[in-house]
Amino acid sequence: MPSLMHSVSSFSQQQLLLLHLHVSSETFKHQCIATLQIPNPHISCLAAHNNLLYAASINAINVFDLSDYSHIDTFSNDSASGSVKSIAFDSTKIFTAHQDCKIRVWQMSPSKQHQLVSTLPTITDRLLHSVSPKNYVTVRRHKKRLWLEHWDAVSDLVVKEGFMYSVSWDKSFKIWNATSYKCLESVNKAHEDAVNAIAVSDNGVVYTGSSDGSIRVWERVDKERKHSLVTTLEKHKSTVNALALNDDGSLLFSGGCDRSIVVWERGKNDHHVVFVEALWGHTGAVLCLIYVDDLLVSGSADRTVRIWQRGKENYYGCMAILEGHEKPVKSLVGFSRSNGVVSICSGSLSGEIKVWDIRNNKNLNKRLISNGVL
Questions:
Q1: Which helix (H) or strand (E) holds 27?
Q2: 244 phi, psi to nearest 5 deg
Q3: Do the Cβ atoms of 322 and 356 come closer than 8 Å?
Q4: What superkingdom heads the lineage (predicted)?
Q5: Distances in Å between the alpha carbon of 245 and those of 158, 207, 355?
Q6: For 20-68, what is each residue's pLDDT tens digit?
Q7: Which residues of 301-333 are buried (b: 16+ CB within 10 A; e: fewer)?
Q8: 258 and which of 136, 148, 170, 237 could share a cystine (Cβ 3.0–4.6 Å)?
């Protein structure tokens, strides 16, 4: 194999392809360093906070110490709450989204045991709002519910700048005060079908992905303090399962049942979000996406995890495929370690969590991109 810094123009197309594959393996070393197994049959979601890994399965949440992967706690609500769909954090509390339409708030004690703090909407808020007929909205024919409560499974949560954002299969998204637990706003008909995913940028732009195949972009009108629809993004041919943003919020990634990952870019000086490219490679539905340390990571029903990175001409390429799961990969979480190592935890429907170490040689990558190799 010629030197990696050799002029690209001297290679044939076939040699360049072989060089790209060789470079990918040289710049992205990966290995599975641990496998965790929980007793319940599948992982519904993963999340990490303060060096702890939270893994939900049915209504139970298992907690592992990421320093040594030891199991430190299991906490749950009663079985009637159904599957845990999402986990989010603020500085001191854990928020969980449930199939029974509720959001629950937990706090960890000094002994690392987790106790239930509240259930949203709170009983007090429900009683206060139940008095006035104007607080009810029609959710189905001849059926009304309070505007501040979800009436189907809560599918995803994001906590950002003191606010919690929730989406639901009831086609809505809601915004909550993460301290007082009060529901501040509800967009009751955000989509034509179930809302499966939400992403929120640092400047407060909200993105929602739905089973209707669309992604909708929402911004707050300052005078009214309410979110309004800015645009609808339509490139997926079926259900949108997952959304992720890059660090500065300029790129949005969406994964769907059509097996594609779509890359969108937001203009710097306007509200336009434009299609950039579609990433293909997964042979099953894309079920989860995360963005960590300049890497896009995707998990799929094809039982693999793929690592993508932006390269030549700002297009993304698949740099590594992580294999070993026996069932679909349902959830991902990632974080940076020292010396250029990124750790990825992938949870599958077999109840298995794999921990991967990805060594990304960024300096070599930059030189290769500048030479047109990547």
A1: helix 13-27
A2: -150, 150
A3: yes
A4: Eukaryota
A5: 12, 10, 22
A6: 444 455 567 889 999 998 877 789 999 999 999 999 988 899 999 999 9
A7: bbbbbbbbbbbeeeebebbbebeebeebbbbbb
A8: 237
Radius of gyration of the chain (CA): 22
Q: Is residue 261 within 8 Å of 270, Cβ to Cβ?
A: no
> How many Å apart are CA 107 and CA 87, to the nearest integer?
13
Question: What is the DSSP track for 13-65?
Answer: HHHHHHHHHHHHHHHEEEEEEEEEE-SSS---EEEEETTEEEEEETTEEEEEE
Q: Which of 124, 127, 85 is nearest to 102 (CA)?
A: 85
Q: Which residue in 335, 266, 354 sits closest to 52, CA to CA?
A: 335
Instruction: Report d(CA 170, CA 300) in Å as an integer.
Output: 25
- Asked if 6 and 18 touch (Cβ cutoff 8 Å), the reply is no
Q: How far is CA 201 from the centre of its chain?
A: 13
Given this model, what pLDDT does residue 79 score? 75
Which residues 6+ apart lie within 8 Å of 91 measured at CB? Answer: none
pTM: 0.89
The pLDDT tens digits for 260-304 are: 999 999 977 666 899 999 999 999 999 999 999 999 999 999 999
Distance CA 255, CA 199 (A): 13
* Cis peptide bond N-terminal to 121, omega within 30: yes
Helix, strand, or coil (residue 111): coil
What are 54's two structure tokens? 């939270």
Contacts (Cβ under 8 Å, ≥6 apart) of 351: 37, 38, 39, 40, 41, 42, 43, 57
Phi then psi for 252, rounded to 5 degrees? -115, 140
Residue-wise pLDDT for 300-316, tens only, equals 999 999 999 998 778 89
Can you point out the beta strands (E) in 77-187? 84-89, 93-98, 103-108, 114-120, 136-140, 143-146, 154-160, 163-168, 173-177, 183-187
Residue 81 in tokens: 């709450």
